[in-house]
Amino acid sequence: MALNSILKFFLPKDKIFFQLFENVGETVSIMGARLKDVVHEKDFDKRAILIKEIEDLEHVNDDYTHRIFTELGRNFITPFDREDIHYLATSLDDICDYIYASAKKINFYKVNPDDSGFQKMAELILSSCNEVQKAVAELRDMKNLRKITDAMVLINSIENQADDIFDMSIEKLFETEPDAKEVIKKREIYQIMEIVTDKCEDAANVIESIIIKYA
Amino acid sequence: MALNSILKFFLPKDKIFFQLFENVGETVSIMGARLKDVVHEKDFDKRAILIKEIEDLEHVNDDYTHRIFTELGRNFITPFDREDIHYLATSLDDICDYIYASAKKINFYKVNPDDSGFQKMAELILSSCNEVQKAVAELRDMKNLRKITDAMVLINSIENQADDIFDMSIEKLFETEPDAKEVIKKREIYQIMEIVTDKCEDAANVIESIIIKYA
Amino acid sequence: MALNSILKFFLPKDKIFFQLFENVGETVSIMGARLKDVVHEKDFDKRAILIKEIEDLEHVNDDYTHRIFTELGRNFITPFDREDIHYLATSLDDICDYIYASAKKINFYKVNPDDSGFQKMAELILSSCNEVQKAVAELRDMKNLRKITDAMVLINSIENQADDIFDMSIEKLFETEPDAKEVIKKREIYQIMEIVTDKCEDAANVIESIIIKYA
Fold this sequence. Notes:
Number of strands of chain A: 0
Family (chains A, B, C): Belongs to the UPF0111 family.
Helix content of chain A: over 70%
CATH superfamily of chain A: Phosphate transport system protein phou homolog 2, domain 2
Order of helices and strands of chain A: HHHHHHH
InterPro entries (chains A, B, C): PhoU-like_sf (IPR038078), Put_Phosphate_transp_reg (IPR018445), UPF0111_domain (IPR052912)
CATH architecture of chain A: Up-down Bundle
Radius of gyration of chain A: 18 Å
Protein name (chains A, B, C): DUF47 domain-containing protein
Number of domains of chain A: 1
Oligomer: homotrimer
Strand content of chain A: under 5%
């Protein structure tokens, strides 16, 4: 808190946004890594510990997001459009919410995540989260536009791959799972995981529109 | 209609909004009470009568909402931001829509509502609706801010409790209901009921942002 | 492309929007017709060809929509509010997305579409799409307001009929289909088809608000 105040004193006001977004980007990336751990952990109780970690990270991210909105509420010049800041913070927050939701549902439904669909999906989510972190980090100086556009292209391509993995997983699920209740549970988890990659794409689209205006 | 015109003549224009919002708040509260009656009524046909009553109330509320939008379309000074009025009316309307949807689905799916999950959920919905009515009623003079903030706190707490009841109900449903078709039906009703408490929270958030600006 | 450039040279800038919206309206109408063909085609492989055609039309529409957004990004006077253009293009694009989604799911889930629910729904979708095309086409000169309002009324009435067909189909599905997995699949397709008629209504509402402002 004290450090925080000192930082605020020395940092030009608009630098706070970059710092907060970088914190969020880092959290997104760690949560993606933790979700991958969850779907590779075969023990229910060990998974519970990982899921608790994801829950804590989600709360940390809520705090960052809340601070971004608080800073936005004060009246001073922002580094880019207020509504872009608002929308970027919201879509990054959505990524965290859906990562947590998919992790939570796995133990909640007592679903065995040792399944190629869940594991491929988690792999794609992690890659997309890492690209989101890179793109967010480049917003500060926008010197390396190439790095941002590379991240955009990858995030879009990952979202398409996730759609295909989703379709294949659902098709396999209906064909091989005899218990309709299991179908309902797993289908919901696939759907939530697929939304994570959509939300990464949303974040990428806001970053793209910021670049077009300011770079 | 005649009375309505006389009222309009005597009331300062912006008082119309308070009146309409109070009507909506009252309807929300009555609909919450009726939904509780529905889940405690064991007879299908008697439930049908209660559900019809909820449907009628939902139409009444549509009329109020429509009038709020019509008044908003005319160009004069509004008591608070036009978009806040728009968003508040929309979220209150959503509460009514989802209360009606959950009541309707019970008989539509021929689901037996004599279930602790449905009954606890309806209890929470009624409490939240009552708090929404209180908060809306205080908007007129904003003298008793304490009353509004107390309502906000309760609505948020109820939404959290509803999440827990939802999780417990879904867990129990998957564990105890052997018929997957019943799982699908009941899960949908729980989901709709849970959304009612989310919509109450949305309404509370708009009211909070109005208070911050104007109180 | 060359022709396109010549057109752009001769057409007053704002005429481009009318042309693009007419192209979209036509695509919407053809996609509605193709969806009706899909649910009447009993052979899986022949259906696959029709679905591929719908997919291609959806891509064509994406291009039109993208061009509308690009034209909107340039700074010149638009024939009506920029946000109305944006919202109209988005809702027309949604119609196409959901038509394609419902067609695609039929073969994806290997569902037999020879079912009165699917066929009535497709019939309603086609009627609504045709009315959307008529309303969009009248935007250019707004001389025949009667034609537009007739289309609006029909689109709203179709949406209500689709709600009823949806309810009846779901009721019948739960009562007659013993396999819960089939229930999940067909229910999802009914839901997507019902959304198409909602999106037609959304488009109609934007057109109505444009008329109110400009006619």
